[in-house]
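ugh ok fine here u go
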Amino acid sequence: MKKTAVFFLLAVIVAGFYFRVDYQLQRGPALEEAEGDFSVPIKIERGSSLREIATQLQEEGIIRSRRIFEIYVLLNNYQGNLQAGTYIFSDNDDLLKVVDTLKEGETASYRITIPEGFTVEEIIERVSNVSDYSQEEVEEALTNSSIEREYFPGNDEVKYQSEGFLFPDTYIIPYDFTPEEIFQVMVTKFENKWLSQIENQLEKREAAEKNLSVADYVTIASLIEKEANLATEKPRIAGVIYNRLEQDMRLQLDASVQYALPDRVTRVLYSHLEVDSSYNTYRNDGLPPGPIASPGDESLKAALEPEENDYLFYFARPDGSHIFTSDYQEHLRRQREEL
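structure:
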């Protein structure tokens, strides 16, 4: 009878011990209270000791027991493998998952999509909305010399030298990236995809005769991006732009006026055409001082490979397509017909 009692008592003690250990291995209080995945961010500084990491995780509510965390790491000889960085833990992560995440260096990241035709100001707002940085911090990053390139316009009339060169795409950005590093990724994407193609075009004699630069090509591509609603019409609109430049005609593009206005409007009116800006192609000859948006692949391709045509005019239909003409009187007649 005594032996039975002793065995029963030992069983209770062992069961209690395993229950306590199992409880300590479960999610910390912060994760239990979190709703959904990727809820609790924490930054592990470079050079942090095992004790410091364990203490930080416990204080942040990621784990329940600093000691159990340390014992588990030491028993598995993981202490030299825990990596620094910013992590975002899920409400499904128990202590074992937390250790595995730190060991594998699965640092947090987020997705950011920059649509084609976005301006720098729209990109600043988008980056600020998906990151922990304010719009002021993001905008200030654009003045960092590390982002500057020799092929940027270099024109004092340009507000953002990087306008047009922050390539539109979907990016997976590490949580630790600064705004400067985010913009470096975007500019590098433009360089990897298009810079050599543009530079090769510049080496051709016809490009030299036009006296175009990398910034000029991107400016033309940005005008195409904002003027064309249909991808199929982009080479044709590019042809119109080149035809006007070659004949020393003002471009008279509404998209450039839109960019020059202090506030965006849904429709450019005759009164807007008088805006005093070097970007107003109704009042100024040649190209604007720099790009007016971030052009995508199709617009950049159209700027390098314009359609050969004799069109000088076009206007938009309600469905977004355009009617192209070579003669101004025909241009006016076609407009009347569309009314």
